[in-house]
Amino acid sequence: MPRGVVARIMAHMVHRLLRPLQRAGFSLAAAGLLGWCAGAGWAAEPAALAELLRRADELDARQEVAAALKCLLEAEAKFPNQADVLFRLAKQQSNLMFDAPSPAEKKRLAALCLATAERAVAADPQHARARLSVGICLAKNFPHVDNQTKVDYSRRLKEETEKAIALEPKLDLAYHMLGRWHFEVAEMNFILKGIAKLVYGGIPSGTLAAARENFERAIALAPGRIIHRHQLAQTLLTLNKKADAIAQLQQCLALKPVEKDDAEAQAEAGQQLRKLGVIGRR
Q: In angstroms, how far is CA 196 from the centroid of its own chain?
């Protein structure tokens, strides 16, 4: 067999063996194989992909949605069917919803980000952040679907989020989404409960106590995220723990937004404090 063919076969085998290590944060150089693979022409591609992802993450951190989206679309064109690209792309498509000019455009973007997240899971079913992305994008679609679809999406949201936690137990957003699920199911109106019972034989029980526990876990993992504290405050208000809820809302105003949803939650926290007759700290 020609030497070039052998090199390509061996490089492909190493690529498959190293994928779990790469997701766990190991580089090819750390594995001692970067120089070996260079001769087969394989190492350059992961390095190029890593650079595109690094750029996209930097742009995301600066909340430059359009630039991050462009970078990820470039990455997808060059490296198709990569979960690491697709879950990031779904996030930026979701971020476009914040400034969408119409309900119709928000609905389109919600469906688009969900389809992209589902492609990420299809590309790698064991990718925790891809699973979480599906859960988040399902939630983004709730305002745009009928009641029966809401019930179906609710079941799927819980399943995907729990799979994400099983794969990566320190994902703060996974606990946030699970908390949201418990809160929404605990407060679900009788129409949705009736549909769930009729079509699916019911859905698992959600409780405010479980919602509170999951939001508190999310805060413990990422104390700077405003959305965790804002949703904990909603749960505390529903549990008639007004003083504790006010303390969380005031913390929302004291923190610096990390993501677009943090800024939105911070604005809502300020409005709530005014309605409650409290002057919030800035």
A: 25
**151-169 pLDDT, tens per residue?**
899 989 999 999 999 999 9
For the question of whether the overall pTM of this predicted structure is more than 0.85, the answer is no
Output the pLDDT for position 185: 85
The crossing angle, in degrees rounded to 10, of helices 242-254 and 226-238 is 160
Residue with tokens 């930097």: 58
In total, the chain counts a number of residues equal to 282
CB 190 within 8 A of CB 233: no
pLDDT in tens, 29-83: 333 323 333 333 344 568 999 999 999 999 999 999 999 999 999 999 999 999 9
Amino acid at residue number 39: G
Residue 22's CB is within 10 A of a number of other CB atoms, namely 16
Identify the pLDDT of residue 44: 57
Q: What is the torsional sign of CA 48, 51, 53, 56? A: negative
> Residue 196's closest CA among 185, 187, 207?
185
Which residues, in sequence order, are CB contacts of 257 under 8 Å at separation 6+?
Answer: 226, 263, 266
Q: In sequence order, what DSSP letters do the residues of 224-274 get, joined into one string?
A: T-HHHHHHHHHHHHHTT-HHHHHHHHHHHHHSPP-SHHHHHHHHHHHHHHH
Mean pLDDT over the full length of the chain = 84
Residue 120 CA to residue 136 CA, distance in Å, equals: 13
The mean pLDDT of 88-104, rounded to a whole number, is 97
Q: With helix as H, strand as E and coil as C, how does 64-99 read?
A: CHHHHHHHHHHHHHHCCCCHHHHHHHHHHHHHHHHH
d(CA 110, CA 270): 27
